Amino acid sequence: MDAATLVDQLEAVLAKPETLSGLDNDATKRRLSEAAFRLNLALEAGGDTIHRLTNAPLELALSRVGVQTGLWTALTKENALLPLTNSQLAKETKIDPVLLKRLLRYYQSKGMVAQTGEDAFAPSNITKALASVGGSSGINYFAEMIYPALMGIPEYLRKTEHANPSNPDFCPWHVGHKTEESPFSWLNTHPECMGYFLPWMAGQRDGNPEFLDSFDFEKEVGAGSDSSVPVFVDVGGAIGHQCILFKSRYPQYSGRIVLQEQAHVIEQVKAAPPPGMDGIDAQTYDFWGPQQLKGARAYYLRNVLHDFPPHKAKEILTNIKAGMTEQSVILIDEMVLPEVGTPWRAASLDMDMLACLAGVERSAKEWGEIFEAVGLELVKTVQYTVQCNDCIMILKQK
Ligand SMILES: C[S@@+](CC[C@H](N)C(=O)[O-])C[C@H]1O[C@@H](n2cnc3c(N)ncnc32)[C@H](O)[C@@H]1O
């Protein structure tokens, strides 16, 4: 194919994305996005590469400026008369118009806003993501908590002679933050970060399918359950968003729906229950001890085990197993990485886990080794996103 023809076609799509059919197919849309991303990298001029890499921190820093000034919300306000001018945005955000002109120049170059004329700005898909509660919390959370840990990776690896991190008490987090505290206890003493972390946990998958879109709970787990045992127990479930989702999809179950979390999180949930929490039990459970709630139909863990190296993940599963009966399953909601061609988002999360917690995202083989070691049998894996290969793994006692 001729490159000039391809670029004409791509520019026509960029000018009018709505003319491209088939984008309602999530897998096609994802493939196209990934192919365009990889094509961009494959065609990058040598001189551009280092500038792209060295300026990478700017995206996070300047995203945060847009969060703290309310620029993203100003651009996405309902009833805003689009496009907006520099002076309209400056008035709303109180940013010096001279500075704002420079910021907007950067933002349009990264697709963070759409520039439709010399002094005309509108929201893009990226502006909308930045304006969301989950998005803005994620930006603040990464800037405060994760970024110093990522920048600690080289020094940490030098110190440990490039061994794979496996000690949660000493990982790049400790080097980057110059602390001996672990991230979870550090969060307790940094309430402003806890205020970013919890909404980010709830919103980090915005726009992606939910596990219950593809996983038939009634058929796989719930059939015949009654009020004598809990039906769904979310272990380490943050502020209960998955319990709320479960209850809204399966209001017919009489068995209890239970959120289990650390004491300070449960206190927070009880003090300010999120909408939809009524009828859901919130109870303290520390997963470093045996599960006290016996015989639940499903013990659900989303993004808990990826926080830990294998020996710790095994300890958690062994503790939960202590509560299981013949009827119980453990549902693990995590990414299952392909052995070839892992997408950028999943691979980046693996590095975030490495840096902060000596945690790890795992392939099917790596999950299998953990299950085998603790006497759990993998009954079935149901994939529910193409973005990150998010899956539900159903486990029974051997
Ligand atoms: C990565 S977050 C995942 C939250 C939630 N499952 C989700 O997917 O949105 C891990 C959760 O584990 C909880 N956690 C950490 N240590 C715990 C412990 N010892 N016992 C119970 N929960 C714990 C944290 O408070 C946090 O909410």
Automatic annotation (TrEMBL):
Q: Which InterPro entries match?
A: COMT-like, COMT_C, SAM-dependent_MTases_sf, WH-like_DNA-bd_sf, WH_DNA-bd_sf
One Pfam family per UniProt: Methyltransf_2
Q: Does Methyltransferase appear among the keywords?
A: yes
Q: Which UniProt keywords apply?
A: Methyltransferase, S-adenosyl-L-methionine, Transferase
Q: Which residues form the O-methyltransferase C-terminal domain?
A: 228-375
In Swiss-Prot or TrEMBL terms, this protein is called O-methyltransferase C-terminal domain-containing protein
